[in-house]
Specification:
- The protein is 68% helix and 0% strand.
- The protein is an all-alpha fold.
- Helix 2 (28-45) runs antiparallel to helix 4.
């Protein structure tokens, strides 16, 4: 959430970062940081019995395939920068762009114009 006067600059920045990602890629260092973040989040999250139940239940309900924490960590460890870019190119496409804004706006045209530059 942010002040409605800052939405246009925020959208512009988000789209710039996405373009930079798609043209410049990610570094192995960035991928390593992401992996470490996920590893830490998973490890700390599983210290609570409710979180353990949530971990397994979401997998069963959403994927119909359950991985142990060890299997999940191994899968995260295998991810490469090439994998990240393959998924990024699949997801971050202008034709797949959606925008939802909540607030009192008199005109959506300025926001749509920003998206068209994407």
């Amino acid at each position: 959430g942010l002040d409605k006067g800052r939405i246009a600059p925020a959208l512009t920045l988000i789209l710039r970062v996405l373009r930079e990602l798609l043209t410049g890629g990610v570094t192995e260092e960035e991928v390593a940081h992401g992996k470490e973040f996920l590893r830490g989040k998973l490890t700390l999250g599983l210290e609570d019995s409710e979180e353990i139940a949530d971990f397994f239940a979401k997998q069963e309900l959403l994927a119909k395939r359950v991985q142990s924490p060890t299997e999940r960590l191994a899968a995260i460890k295998k991810v490469t920068a090439k994998d990240v870019m393959r998924v990024a190119r699949s997801i971050f496409q202008p034709s797949k762009t959606n925008l939802a804004l909540i607030g009192p706006f008199k005109d959506e045209k300025p926001f749509l114009a920003i998206l068209r530059r994407w």
